[in-house]
Amino acid sequence: MFDESHEGRPITGKTVLIALIAFFGVVGAVNAVMIRAATSTFSGVETENAYQAGLAFNRQLAAVAEQEARHWQVNAEVVRQSPGRAELIVRIRDRSNAPVTDIDLAARLMHPADARRDHSVALTGIGAGTFSGEIDAEPGQWDLDIDIGRSGETLFRSKSRLTLR
What we know:
Layout: H1 13-41, H2 50-70, E1 73-82, E2 85-93, E3 104-110, E4 119-121, E5 124-127, E6 130-136, E7 140-150, E8 153-164
Antiparallel strand pairs: 1-2, 2-6, 3-4, 3-7, 5-6, 7-8
């Protein structure tokens, strides 16, 4: 099994020691380079001003509570007109099922995987509490964002997933 005729350098304790030191030296050098790269590209700070972010979060919670207290019913429907073209119809009713009027409405159709395909939907009033707009969208999954406001104040915000056929 062991061929003694093979001539070469014998493996001594000194050779093993040098090989181990070289191996761990390379591992240590690579770790040092990676640590330096990691600490120089990411400071660890995710929020520049955590206090302001906390206040903004509290304002969002208050806005959600106010929105829920209104008990508005906002229904959006997409009606396919032709391949690549559809109509978005949004109906808004208050807690007594009366149409909500004197509001500003903004809608945005967003692709869940490609922000380059996102686009705003221009909505116009077609009746009391009913708005309509044309959308250019191919079939697939989309997110529909609806913002309803009055005098610059956001009264209702909705995000929902829909499937266009």
